[in-house]
């Protein structure tokens, strides 16, 4: 039997808001099988979460007829490092029986669940369901 892609990890993320509704931290639990290089694994997941937060909160890529409408990188509103909340990476090791040395591909999985985690946290905070990126800001509660 030929298997073309068989070794992949799983991920779950949680977005933690403070009492004002600001993102306090992101918790990213990722299964990488046998993790060969923990520092590289953590950096890969942190980078993916950072990218996902940009998609979720600030980035916009306006296009018309397949062309960008602006030519300035800063106009894309890519999230800067100092704007990024704490990212806690939980490394899960469930060895893959067919992957090389029990490892699984980690790739860009850090990016995938981020916007959904943020949208759900915002929904739990203010009851507004968001379905388009970047997400609308939360409705501030007076407490």
Identify the notable features of this structure and list them briefly.
143 residues; Aldehyde Oxidoreductase, domain 4; two-stranded antiparallel sheet; 2 helices
General description of the model:
The protein is an alpha+beta fold and 143 residues long. It has one domain (11-126): Aldehyde Oxidoreductase, domain 4, CATH 3.30.365.10. The protein contains 2 helices and 5 strands. The chain has a 3-stranded mixed beta sheet with strand order 1-2-5. α1 (38-57) crosses α2. The longest helix is centred in the N-terminal third of the chain and has 20 residues, at 38-57. The radius of gyration is 18 Å and the shape is globular. The model has no long low-confidence stretch (mean pLDDT 90).
Brief overview:
By secondary structure, the chain is α+β, with helices and mostly antiparallel strands. The protein has helices spanning 38-57, 114-126; strands at residues 11-17, 23-31, 63-64, 67-68, 86-92.
């Amino acid at each position: 039997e030929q298997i073309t892609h068989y070794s992949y990890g799983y991920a779950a993320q949680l977005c933690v808001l403070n009492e004002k509704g600001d993102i306090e931290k992101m918790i990213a639990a990722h299964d990488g099988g046998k993790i060969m290089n923990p520092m590289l694994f953590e950096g890969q997941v942190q980078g993916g979460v950072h990218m996902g937060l940009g998609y979720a909160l600030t980035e916009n890529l306006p296009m018309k007829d397949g062309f960008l409408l602006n030519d300035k990188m800063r106009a894309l509103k890519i999230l800067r490092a100092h704007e990024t909340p704490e990212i806690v990476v939980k490394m899960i090791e469930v060895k893959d029986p067919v992957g090389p040395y029990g490892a699984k591909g980690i790739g860009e999985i850090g990016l995938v669940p981020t916007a959904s985690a943020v949208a759900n946290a915002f929904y739990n905070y203010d009851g507004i369901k968001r379905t388009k990126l970047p997400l609308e800001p939360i409705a501030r509660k007076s407490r």
